[in-house]
Amino acid sequence: MASDSITSKPSITADHHHAKDDLEKSLVFDAQVLRRQSNIPQQFVWPDHEKPGVDAPELKVPVIDLGDFLSGNPAAAMEASRVVGEACKKHGFFLVANHGVDQRLIAHAHSYMDDFFQLPLPEKQKAQRKIGESCGYASSFTGRFSSKLPWKETFSFSYTAEKNSSKNIEEYCHERMGEDFAEFGKVYQNYCEAMSNLALGIMELIGMSLGVSRAHFREYFKDNDSITRLNYYPPCQKPELTLGTGPHSDPTSLTILHQDQVGGLQVLVDNEWRSISSNFDTFVINIGDTFMALSNGIFKSCLHRAVVNSQTPRKSLAFFLCPKNDKMVTPPNELVDTCNPRKYPDFTWPMLFEFTQKHYRSDMNTLEMFSNWLQENISCQRTCGLNPGTRVGQDECYGRAKMVYT
């Protein structure tokens, strides 16, 4: 997946920037209304080749006992790292059990999610997410796209693990939703802190599986700037026509997903869609594009999607681990040699995030296209005589590279 193999520019949809204003204003995804309609709006109907088919066979993903790994048992640690390495080289998914996260906190997080998504639409829109932002409420992607819209609502929070940082989620919920949401904000602040700690433990395991020091990636991500997203997939009377989330790879580093018992997560493995069963006692872990770059392409960021059904809402909690905003995404020296040379240029997480929010709709080619975009930035530096070591030079080239894709 080296960037020099790319022969075309990103297939950025024209509607990303040029959707008609009247369409955006008229199309509203009100789950309480649409879930009962026998015909769904055309904007939610996916092309035939992307529509969900018959029930997908189950993917047998390994279950890692994280308690054994973190207890210091050398044999358990070696076996766990071996199993995780095999899974991440093939499809990037595994489960963790005995993870140490308080089950009451998980239950509260699901309960408050239920309460929020049952609110009338105007109440939820008090926290409306703006284009380019990482936090807030979104009813499908009606403000960003005008076709292949996902059948879902989301509420996202930005989280920072840096020491002495403010309780940013509590403050955000209080500011946007009011005093009644004080406990709501506290629950998700605590949930994010628990997910960040869990992610650092998983990063020790991943470091071992890649043959670098156990502490390398834990240290790299200790001051992470991450995102938590509440996903709500309402029932759809024509589930065979739409998708809860379209095929994509996560642009972030690592996803920690907690599902309810409904199911609907599917992964593309060997050109076949496979389902991952729900288990309330485990978290689903998958590698994202940023970590694929950090591993120099050794670990895979796999294509996945979510399907919906006609009877029961599906809910999930996703924590997207991301590096600190000023951290450079570059693989450790141990993962680069003559047999496995550098596959991706250096970048920071905010650069990739902006690319996916403003210039490119995430799919299976996001990292390749982003790498190509960065290479054009580098070429600009060379041909324009700008100094990439200065902020002015970086900003000028960054701006010119963006123009190619807008």
Molecular structure report:
The chain is an alpha+beta fold and 406 residues long. It has one domain (29-330): Sandwich (Jelly Rolls), CATH 2.60.120.330. The protein is 37% helix and 17% strand. A hairpin with a 2-residue loop joins strand 8 and strand 9 (272-275). The longest helix has 29 residues, at 182-210. It is globular. It starts with 14 loop residues before the first helix and ends with a helix.
Main sheet, how many strands, which sense, barrel? Answer: 8 strands, mixed
Class, according to the CATH hierarchy? Answer: Mainly Beta
The best one-word shape is globular
Helix segment tally? 14
Q: Which topology does CATH recognise? A: Jelly Rolls
Pathway: Hormone biosynthesis; Plant hormone biosynthesis; gibberellin biosynthesis
Organism: Dovyalis caffra
Family: Belongs to the iron/ascorbate-dependent oxidoreductase family. GA20OX subfamily.
Domain Fe2OG dioxygenase: 223-323
Which secondary structure elements does this structure contain, and how are they paired or packed?
Elements: H1 15-18, H2 21-26, H3 31-34, E1 63-65, H4 66-70, H5 74-90, E2 93-97, H6 103-117, H7 121-124, E3 136-139, E4 153-160, H8 168-177, H9 182-210, H10 216-221, E5 225-233, E6 245-248, E7 254-259, E8 265-269, E9 272-275, E10 283-287, H11 289-294, E11 304-306, E12 314-321, E13 328-329, E14 347-348, H12 349-359, H13 366-384, H14 391-404
Parallel strand pairs: 1-2
Antiparallel strand pairs: 2-10, 3-4, 4-5, 5-12, 6-11, 7-10, 7-12, 8-9, 8-11, 13-14
Helix pairs in contact: 5-9, 6-9, 8-9, 13-14
